[in-house]
Structure formats: C-alpha cells, structure tokens
Specification:
The structure is a single chain. By secondary structure, the protein is of the alpha+beta class. The chain has 4 domains: 4-124, Acyl-CoA dehydrogenase/oxidase, N-terminal domain (Butyryl-Coa Dehydrogenase, subunit A, domain 1), CATH 1.10.540; 157-276, Butyryl-CoA Dehydrogenase, subunit A, domain 2, CATH 2.40.110; 281-428, Up-down Bundle (Butyryl-CoA Dehydrogenase, subunit A, domain 3), CATH 1.20.140.10; 430-460. The protein has helices at residues 4-7, 12-18, 24-35, 39-49, 56-59, 63-74, 100-111, 117-120, 127-137, 140-151, 278-312, 328-358, 364-388, 400-408, 417-429, 432-453, and strands at residues 156-160, 178-182, 185-196, 203-211, 223-228, 235-241, 253-264. The chain has a 4-stranded antiparallel β-sheet with strand order 2-3-7-6, with no helix packed on it. A 3-stranded mixed β-sheet has the order 1-4-5, covered by helices on one side. Helix 9 (127-137) runs antiparallel to helix 10 (140-151) and helix 13 packs antiparallel against helix 14 (400-408). The longest helix is centred in the middle third of the chain and has 35 residues, at 278-312. The model has no long low-confidence stretch (mean pLDDT 94). Bound molecules: flavin-adenine dinucleotide. Residues 126, 159-162, 167-169, 194-196, 243, 253, 409, 412-416, 418-419, 422 line the site of flavin-adenine dinucleotide. It comes from Saitozyma podzolica. Homodimer. Residues 276-427 form the Acyl-CoA dehydrogenase/oxidase C-terminal domain. One of its GO terms (cellular component) is cytoplasm.
C-alpha cells in the first residue's frame, strides 16, 4: 500500500514506478522531508524579516533561514542533492548518497517552497553546481577552502559567466572578461551581470569564466575558471538586476565589475592544469543542475494547482450562480494542469534514471527536453492559477506572481529554450540514416511478400 503522504505529492502511478528503486533510507528521508512542515509557514516570516528597501535589504539574511537550516540538519535533510562520487563525506559525512531518481522526487517536494526549502536543506542553486565544479576539478586546497564550508552551508557562492553587452547564450562569444597570467599571478578584468547570489552577505567565492588564451585556435580552449572572493580589491557589485520588479534579496542577480583583481595562479580552478579547460568544466556543471531546476519547477506547478483548486472551491467566489469549479473552462484548466504536471514528472524521472544508469552525458537528450518543456509547463499551470484568482492572482497577496517570475527566468538561465530546442532537433536528425536503412528493408520485404502472394501492389 503506497504511503499516502507521498502520493499526496507524487501521483500514485509515478510512485509505483519509482518506489521499487528507492532505498529504505531514501524513503525515510522523503517522508521526513514531507513532514518538514516548518518551511511553508515560515515563508511569510522570511519576507517580513527582510528590510523593504535600502542597503539593509542586502546586509543580512532573515534569521528564520538559519533556524530552518539547523532544523533540516538535525532531521538529516542536508545536501540531499549530493549523489555520491569523490566528495561524498567531505563535510563530515553530512547528507548525500541518494540516487538522482530519489533526489528528483525530493526536489519536487522542495519546489513547493522554492524560497526556503532548497536553501534550508543546502540544495540550492547556484551552490550545488559550484560544489560539483570544486569537487570534480578543484585542487585539494580549493576544496578545503571553499567546498568544505559550502557543503556545511557556512558560505554561499556565485557562478559568473554572463557578460554585459555580449550574447552570452553562445558561450564562445564571451570575451569581455579576461585574466592575464603574469608570473605567479592572474589579473582579472571584466563586466558580468545576472550573477545569482552575488548580493548575498554570506557569499565568499565567485567562480568566474574568463578568457586566458585568446589566441588559441580552438574557441573551446580559450577560457578558464578562476576563483574570486567578493571582498578582494577590484570586485564591485554594481547593482541587483530585477526580474519583473523582484530583486530576490538578499541573494540577488547582480551586475558585477572585476577591475584588475589580482589573484594567485592557484586561483584557477584545477590550478595551472586548469588553464584552458573552462568550457569542459562548465559542461560538467550544467547537466544535473538543469534537471534540478526542472524537478523543483514541477513542485512549484503543483503548489500553484493546489492554490487553484482551493480558490475555485471557495463559496465566496461564486460567479453567475455557480462555484468557479462548476464552469467548464475551469474544469478543463484543472484537468490540463493535472495532466501536464504528471507528464512532466515522468519525463524528469526518466532523465534522472538515465543519469543514474549511464551518467549525465548519456542523459543529455532527456535533460535537454526537460529543460525547455518543464518550465513552460509550469508557467502554463501558474498562469491558470493566477487567472482564477482574478486581479489578486497577480498581486503581492498571493505567491503566484513570484512563482511566475521565478519560473520564467528558467527559460533563459543556463541557456535559453531555443538553444536546447535546436540541440534536440539536431540530435533527433542523427537517427535519419538508420531510419532510411530500416525503411528500405521494410519496402524490400513488403515487395517480396506481395510477389510471393501473386498480388498486385495495393493502396497504402
Ligand atoms: C534570474 C536569472 C538568473 C541568472 N543567473 C545567472 C548566473 O548566476 N550566472 C550567469 O552567468 N548567468 C546567469 N543568468 C544569465 C543567463 O544564463 C543568460 O541570460 C542566458 O544564458 C542568455 O544569455 P543572454 O541573456 O546574453 O541572451 P542572448 O545570448 O543575447 O540571447 C537572446 C535571445 O536570443 C535567442 N537565441 C539565442 N540563441 C538562439 C538560437 N540558437 N536559436 C534561436 N534563438 C536563439 C533566445 O531567444 C535568447 O533568449 C541568469 C539570468 C536570469 C534571468
């Protein structure tokens, strides 16, 4: 008999598929996460504790966040995204050890409280991807200095790639940020924006993509990643960008100038051997990270549908003599939302399983399809939820407008939809030769069967 707590979140059909692949430990973590009820009621407090404007808004983190982190740690809900590998146990064995499939279900549950749950459990972007970079490619000193405190949730980090006035979705365009190697030093200059987390007072490291070898014949070997501390001389946080007016304080998505920042050459990710490997490393970062966003977006969509269902059942909100739920268009919105969420979940679970079985590289197709379909699905569901709420649905009195703004950004972040669409289209076309050979064989066999039967060619 399926655990009702779980099937309130995940459809019974999807759960029946993944349940046999869950370890007992993962099942127990999942139910603990579902019971971690401190998160949703704390959302309003988190926003109330943030200064409404001015520098104070960026000076400290609402105290409720640390309380939630402490509680999550006590409950064993820590670093759940950490799917194993060589950095398992680096934070004193805290958390991790789940498969991507197990984590996918948990990330969906966390998506119900996108503002608090991922960070409370040390599972939030961009830290997870940054930890992965440091774990896989960092030197032992870099791991000790940045990875360990990140795993412990003591500091936060940024990934600094997108450049002002450069079409950054084509990463080979990136050129305004350069690092000159001068003996044992690297001098970094550049102008980035949309750097998530750069406003956070806890931020202790930016992983910056910069040009180190502009003359290299291969455009994929010109860049490196360097580790920069925001307190260093020459790092200037210019301003937080806003998304439909939201600044996402205290983390923010900031414009940042690096003005002749002097670093040791040991600040290159991977040390001197990491020079020229920027592209190779960022590819490794983006696969699972893109999927984590999709997993959480399904949770956001589910929460929007939950809000929709309650609103259309409110007796005070009847129109034209009926509950909203009795109008045919509303029923269709409910059914379509349910269907689309459940379809998207199966896609994400299949991508997660593919990563577990064959690695992120083998799962690029599934991850790519999820990357451009799941946020669009979630946006449709949130839009329907806003619509049934009337004008209130786009106001500050429900979280729906913030959900919409947050998910809309995923159609750009980590590469715009079109780039992924194009890649999937090209990958699909690779099947053509096999299809042509198969079709020719079918035709030959069909002609032989007709001939054997002594019949004339028939209409298809
Ligand atoms: C909230 C938020 C947070 C972000 N966080 C970070 C961060 O932490 N670090 C970071 O480095 N960046 C971050 N970004 C930036 C994000 O990764 C970039 O916006 C994204 O990669 C697109 O780059 P661009 O904005 O320069 O758009 P451009 O490259 O100028 O592209 C503009 C548009 O061109 C179209 N386009 C591009 N290629 C194709 C194609 N092949 N076919 C058809 N159309 C195409 C798309 O519609 C695309 O949206 C964030 C963005 C947002 C909104």
């Amino acid at each position: 008999m399926a655990d009702k707590r779980i099937t309130q979140y995940i459809s019974p059909g999807a759960w029946a598929l993944v349940d046999p692949l869950f370890s007992d430990r993962a099942r127990s973590i999942l139910t603990t996460l579902i019971d971690f009820q401190d998160v949703l009621p704390s959302e309003a407090l988190f926003h109330a504790q943030l200064a409404p404007h001015g520098p104070e808004r960026w000076a400290s983190v609402p105290t409720v966040m640390d309380q939630l982190k402490g509680r999550a740690k006590e409950l064993g809900l820590w670093n759940l995204w950490l799917s194993g590998g060589d950095f398992q146990g680096m934070a004193g064995g805290e958390g991790g050890g789940l498969t991507n499939l197990e984590y996918a279900v948990m990330a969906e549950v966390m998506g119900h409280s996108l503002v608090l749950a991922p960070q409370a459990t040390n599972c939030s972007a961009p830290d997870t991807g940054n930890m992965e970079v440091l774990a896989r490619f960092g030197t032992p000193e870099q791991k000790q200095k940045y990875l360990v405190p990140l795993l412990k949730g003591e500091i936060r980090s940024s990934f600094s790639m997108t450049e002002v006035a450069v079409a950054s979705s084509d990463a080979t365009n990136l050129k305004n940020t350069t690092a000159r190697v001068e003996g044992n030093q690297v001098v970094l200059s550049g102008h980035k924006w949309w750097i998530s987390g750069a406003g956070d007072p806890r931020n202790a490291v930016h992983i910056v993509l910069c040009v180190t070898d502009p003359g290299n014949a291969s455009p994929h070997k010109r860049h490196s990643l360097v580790l920069v501390e925001p307190k260093m001389k020459g790092v200037k946080i210019v301003r937080p960008m806003t998304v439909f007016g939201y600044d996402d304080a205290p983390e923010g998505h900031c414009e940042v100038i690096y003005d002749n920042v002097r670093l040791g050459v040991d600040s290159v990710v991977g040390g001197k051997a990491g020079l020229g490997r920027g592209f190779e490393i960022i590819q490794a970062r983006l696969g699972p990270g893109r999927l984590h966003h999709c997993m959480r977006s399904i949770g956001v969509a589910s929460r929007a549908l939950d809000l929709l269902l309650q609103r259309v059942s409110d007796p005070a909100r009847r129109t034209f003599g009926k509950y909203l739920r009795e109008h045919g268009t509303v029923l269709a919105d409910i059914a379509n939302s349910r269907a689309e969420i459940d379809q998207a979940r199966l896609l994400v679970l299949s991508a997660a399983r593919q990563i577990d079985l064959h690695g992120a590289k083998a799962a690029l197709k599934e991850i790519g399809i999820a990357k451009f379909t799941v946020p669009q699905m979630a946006l449709r569901v949130i839009d329907r939820a806003m619509q049934v709420h009337g004008a209130e649905g786009i106001s500050q009195d429900t979280p729906l407008a913030a959900f919409y703004a947050g998910v809309r950004t995923l159609r750009f972040a980590d590469g715009p939809d079109e780039v992924h669409v194009q890649q999937i289209g090209k990958q699909e076309l690779k099947r053509v030769e096999i299809l042509q050979a198969r079709e020719a064989a079918v035709k030959r066999k069909a002609a032989a069967l007709i001939k054997e039967a002594g019949l004339a060619k028939a209409k298809l």
